[in-house]
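Re-run requested by the PI after the first attempt was lost when the workstation crashed. Everything re-entered from the original request form. Ligand of interest: FE2/S2 (inorganic) cluster.
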Amino acid sequence: MRDLKEWRQTLQQQDRPADRPSLTVGMSTCGQAAGGARVMAALEAEVKRLGLQVDISQTSCIGMCYAEPIVEVALPGKPRVFYGDMTPERGGRLVASHVVQGVPVREWALIQLPGNASPYEGIPVMPASPYYGRQVRVVTSRLGLTDPESLAEYIATGGYAALEKCLRQMTPEQVVEEIKTSGLRGRGGAGFPTGLKWGFTRSAPGEKKYVVCNADEGDPGAFMDRSVLEGDPFAVIEGMTIAAYAIGADEGYIYCRAEYPLAIKRLKMAIAAAEAKGLLGSNILGSGFNFELHIKAGAGAFVCGEETALLASIEGRRGMPRVRPPFPAQQGLWGKPTNINNVETYANVPYIIQNGGRWFAAMGTEKSKGTKVFCLTGKVKKTGLIEVPMGITLREIIFDIAGGIQDDRRFKAVQIGGPSGGCLPADKLDLPVDYDSLTRAGAIMGSGGMVVMDENTCMVDVARFFLNFTQVESCGKCTPCREGTKRMLEILTRICAGEGRMEDLDTLEGLARVVKNTALCGLGQTCPNPILSTLQNFRHEYEAHIKDKRCPAHVCQALLVYTIDPEKCTGCGACTRACPAGAISGEKKQPHRIDPALCIKCGSCMEKCKFGAISRL
Amino acid sequence: MADVTLTIDGKKITVPAGTTVLQAAREKGIFIPTLCHDPKLSPWGGCRLCVVEIEGMRGLPASCVTTATEGMVVQTASPAVLEARRMLLELLLANHPQDCLTCSKNGACSLQDYAYYYGVRGDQFQGEKHAYPVEADNPFIVRDLNKCVLCGKCIRVCDEVQVNNAIDFAHRGFNTRVTPAMDLSLKESEACVFCGNCVQVCPVGALVEKASLWQGRQWELTKVRTTCTFCGVGCNLEVSVKDDRVVRVRGYDNPLVNNGWLCVKGRFGADFADSPERVARPLIRTGARGEGRFREATWDEALDYTARRLTEIKEQYGSRAIAALSSARCTNEENYLMQKFMRAVIGSNNVDHCART
Ligand SMILES: Cc1cc2nc3c(=O)[nH]c(=O)nc-3n(C[C@H](O)[C@H](O)[C@H](O)COP(=O)(O)O)c2cc1C
Ligand code: SF4
Ligand code: SF4
Ligand code: SF4
Ligand code: FES
């Protein structure tokens, strides 16, 4: 195919304005988990019942995961409106009011898209809405707005213009230079400059080279890469194709965890569609450049996200990291020079080529350019997928975008960077989010997981949670990580159980130091970070567990004490009936009491007491 | 290749480019402990005991997998290095049975040596230890994974030397262990050929020769260098002997022959040495053929008898009435002589060998 531009123009003319209404349901993993399929079925039934001419289709995650299932209603010549928290029951009114009468249901509407048509009144326009106001959507620009399975829509929205530009107007060296100019750094965690990496792989001696996309995304609570793969698979493929052209590779792999079936399905469809149109495979766009792309499903080991373990896994060996150097750029897949980047890194590439490296470098801070996608989870009001310019502060993300803490409780900490990251307390809220500031503060950028914690979170328990994760995910190759995480976990578990000793804190610090210094790969080297950062910022919580045998956040069960206030207790006996352990006794109409030896600290009594007589310490 | 000069513990050392820091240090007699490193196997870098401090490098790199570069400044015993090594040994011992009193590796165990050297008692952590059943369902090898330090040498030797791939790491985290596929025993796996090369490289008592159990402590043994009699390759052996009895056979590191490696027969077949059934003197048949009656003879008598009979048979029936069958247990030279003798002296081409089929 030689005339992509023409095809794009035809597509754009065909596409919009549509001549009939359309309903689009968010059907990414978040949408599906929230019941998107049932909503879609209900809408289909309603449309059929009324005999309407309406297109019903699906889209990917627009980022407002907190409001899924999300339904978009678009009438010809009118702005597209997005509704949140949809249920099958709400379908009837939505269709009757918005589709049939043309009157949006304001109280369910989240946002409307800007466009040529005049906006509806009383519904925030996307760029001005509080959630999107501070976001800059580059990598996520198509998410939730286009059909991710349609190559035509991808091309109509500017897709493959970048590849065409590379093949027709740029030498591979110029492509590498452009990426260098952009200042793009790897989005997989370590933040290595992408242009430099491409340059190394390009100049590594060897005929056969590979490009690999790291889509293993194993951090608990992280789903950036999944959202991008599900929402814009063509962008990742186009980015990889450009990388292959730049470094001189003719074959590539996407290593995607098998727990992402929808992403794999969409990637497969996208690869087939691109191949069918001559955008992948041999003689791409008639240029003589060949690139063959495979998908490899990984079994979901966290450590397989580490690049050398990932390559071993593609080769069919056990996913265990090896010492670098040699780096994959010199000796990667089957010993050949290999460029490995993260999903988001590749997804940025077409935009950089299209708009120029300078455009990208104008966003962000001096050393961290562009935007970053984050997964906001935890105790914020609006959890979801956001894309923000580098350098934005944590406060802006948590309070302006995510609307602050649920039930307006107190913010306690934000965990950034997953198991390799750290917990930052309130006095770090004004920290700019960029690679270097986060590292200096004891966290890391990581791949983009951001878990917000409120006053009801125990920081010792948080450290224990992450150590448990790294212990079971350690590949077992090296002593510090395999054995050290086990002992650190045991100590943390002991502290949470009220059996800690003050010396344990020194031992923890000593262990953490040695594990950090001696572990072979990034997993082991960074796994002490959750401990070190909580010890640094929340030492008093550790001490409360050890010295006072108290969990200030009331999380560690073994340390909870339930007592009944005799002044408030009316002797109704509701608690006695609720207690599964038979720990509560007392005469009717007399104050009751709890036997601490029998109490299993389930909290059932407290829930049942109507007089607020039971307290938890 | 060009040379590089680096400084280790204040000493300037010049080595060929490509040399590891560990090799460079050892060449100068500088001690660095290692558990997973073996110069005959591929680099691994897992145990981390060999960590050192290198100016300008983050953390403590493992010297066995770090290439020496020009101007590198290395410290092998800085406070940070010693802290790390002690901690790593504590961690290994925290998950180790510590029954050195009855362990057959006692006295030849790297873990024990390093613990002694660094004064590590292994009492800093009290937590979970493995409680794997000891595997002894085969006649040759006893596998006690509770003692395994997961250095992975056995896996590499099986893959790279024996090229058998009978074992690998399985599971993750604290539960990582070395095992044949599907967690079977070596015997059940039917993949292991019991060459025992894994036993030879195991730095601790996780893999030991079954026949050597309770047969003598390491320091009671005399080591004798000899040649294997099982075939013509002539593998060099290091036989450990106590009271004139063979306790254990290991390969002797002769790079010209077997480079230290052995097969199942050479390693585990030494029981013939003091077997009562062993034929130690020449025997001459006394009864009828097949009756099984023999008398002992001297070598002179036996050789004279054989020479006389061969001459008689050749005269009476011709050379082709005589055939010779020799043994795979002879050396190549002996087999050569045998066929030469048959062809040149007897005049017959009827030569064969027990291992021909
Ligand atoms: C334990 C561990 C897990 C990792 N997991 C991932 C992952 O899931 N996705 C990813 O892109 N990079 C992951 N990385 C980082 C990769 O090793 C590698 O740096 C990255 O894929 C390079 O791509 P980039 O330069 O585009 O960031 C992981 C690293 C470690 C040490
Ligand atoms: S640090 Fe952990 S995950 Fe990495 S190689 Fe060592 S044991 Fe494996
Ligand atoms: S005895 Fe030989 S074949 Fe069997 S596991 Fe050990 S090295 Fe492999
Ligand atoms: S059995 Fe021995 S050689 Fe094999 S990993 Fe364990 S300690 Fe190392
Ligand atoms: S000897 Fe170097 S890491 Fe084990």
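Saved to the shared folder this time. The pocket of iron/sulfur cluster (ligand 3) is lined by residues B 157-158, 162, 164, 166-167, 186, 192-198 (CB under 6 Å).
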